[in-house]
Amino acid sequence: MEQKNIKVHVANLKKSFGKLEVLKDISMDIEEGEVVVLLGPSGSGKSTFLRCLNQLEVATDGTIIVDGFNVTDKHVDINKVRENIGMVFQHFNLFPHMSVIENIMLAPVELKKMTKEEAREKSMQLLTRVGMEAKADAYPPQLSGGQKQRVAIARALAMNPDIMLFDEPTSALDPEMVGEVLEVMKELARGGMTMVVVTHEIGFAREVANRIVFMDGGYIVEQGTPEEVLKNPKEARTIDFLNKVL
Ligand code: ADP
Ligand code: MG
Fold it and tell me: Which ligand 1 atom sits closest to the C-alpha of 40?
């Protein structure tokens, strides 16, 4: 039998902030090359889940293994884990005083993964990939929101991650800029990147996701293919949510 390569293994993950239990019992395996779209109402713990995967939040209980690294082991070298995980946020978090290409080169050079020359060449390739090569020497404040987000994606790719996490990457964009960012994400998915994407872009989910996971109240309520979850949702909470966003 073909052995599937599990990139992310989450078992019985719990996360509380003080008395507030946000993630109550989440288990999920993600295979290499899989694109998982996380849906759920605001406050359901989607961002917290993503942030637990690279220990931006420390899990309260349960196990998370990413690329063979036990993230929930307190002795883990978390920087090693993070090198393999690229993250793109709603707000781009680019350094405004650094040019586009300097933003992208920063991590590989600082972490001594590449020489400056190598990083510059790699960054130009990434900028070409996201259609931003002409803006290499521009500064973030000169860019549109869609352009900034494409640069942020290139920056996240600069460390050669093999997993990419996206937390509502298009939610802060003007509507006319959403498409260009989703297009870059689709291209990444086609290239075989393992991706976990929190988004309300149902069209993207339908077209690109291998699996849709609907979260509510700290649990996974329902999951399946886009066909299953979007066309034939079984749970009342999923139906209610889809009625609001579709
Ligand atoms: P979602 O991304 O699905 O909207 P979040 O993961 O951002 O949900 O938040 C889930 C819940 O956890 C919310 O009630 C939020 O207020 C709370 N929460 C998130 N981060 C923190 C934090 N650092 N401290 C306290 N509460 C938090
Ligand atoms: Mg969120």
Answer: 3
